[in-house]
Amino acid sequence: MPPTTTAAAPSVLITNFANQMASLYHNEGNSLFVDEAPQSEVGRATLVTLGFGCFFFDYDNDGWPDIFVADAISKTRSSACRSA
Ligand SMILES: [Ca+2]
Q1: Ligand 1 center to residue 53 CA distance, Å?
Q2: What is the CA radius of gyration of the chain?
Q3: Given 31, 57, 60, 84, which is the most exposed site by the fewest CB atoms within 10 A?
Q4: In which residue ranges of the chain is pLDDT below 50?
Q5: CA nearest 6: which of 60, 62, 65, 48?
Q6: pTM
Q7: CA of 2 to the centre of ligand 1 (A)
Q8: Quick one: DSSP state of residue 53?
Q9: What would the pLDDT profile of 29-46 be if each residue is shown by its tens digit?
Q10: Ligand 1 centroid vs 74 CA: distance in angstroms?
Q11: Residues forming beta bridges with residue 13, ordered by sequence position
């Protein structure tokens, strides 16, 4: 499921410690956020690593936001999730 963050309804991504997947809180509106990471590629891709810096951006310029997460353990590793 792609992260459907928009300027009007931003979602929130929070990185966690190793063996704890990142949390991807989808903005449902009315101040309600639902963690979609467990059902998405985001959860699987971030489960093992210790994430620090992260941000949404359109890596492949397809109009859907992608996610970049910097890995804090390795100086050379990072992960990115394609949204579509
Ligand atoms: Ca994209």
Answers
A1: 19
A2: 12
A3: 31
A4: 1-2, 84
A5: 65
A6: 0.71
A7: 9
A8: E
A9: 999 999 999 999 989 988
A10: 25
A11: 24
